[in-house]
């Protein structure tokens, strides 16, 4: 039987065309990947701010008459509350007092009276000599075992909070007195008071 050579030639031609198209498509794909490109990057630096009180200046507060206190005595101390941070802050002042020695039963803190004011109004250069700064931050009251002088000890806005800008200083005048009416119950007594300055950010708070 005679083989149909025409059909074989046609099939061979079709295979050749398919192969050629495949090669062509691969070539086109290879060419399409050869494009000009450019990539740029940029760094962003994030730095958090600071809320910092000058520890040395706060620590310089001195309120002591030694062991010679008698009724009618008082002592006045000044403290520079300086903002060494990068952001504005507000601060509060609180106290806690422990009974060191009470030979007659009553802690000295229950007799001592404390009052807090800003720097003197009439003679600010001498800070607290006149003790007449306004507004009064804490009116005279018994020191007691614990006390919030002004502001809020929590990180929220509180009545009396004092705001201090970065690099600025707020001068505080603190007076502690033993009233003239103090009786013999408090002789030889000792109390130790810790003053706590709580500072917090003002922005977004």
Features:
205 residues; alpha+beta; 4-stranded antiparallel beta sheet; 2 helices; 8 strands; elongated
Structure described in brief:
This protein is an alpha+beta fold and 205 residues long. The chain is 16% helix and 30% strand.
Structure, explained:
- This protein is an alpha+beta fold and 205 residues long.
- The protein has one domain.
- It has 2 helices and 8 strands, in the order ααββββββββ.
- The mean pLDDT is 87.
Overall, the morphology is elongated
Spans of at least 5 consecutive residues with low confidence: none
Head-to-tail CA distance between termini = 102 Å
Structural class: alpha+beta
How many H/I helical runs?
2
Percentage of β-strand residues: 25-35%
Radius of gyration, in Å, reads 40 Å
Number of strands: 8
Strand order of the largest sheet: 1-7-3-4
SSE series: HHEEEEEEEE
Question: What count of structural domains?
Answer: 1
Helix content: 10-25%
Mean pLDDT: 87
Give the biggest sheet.
Answer: 4 strands, antiparallel
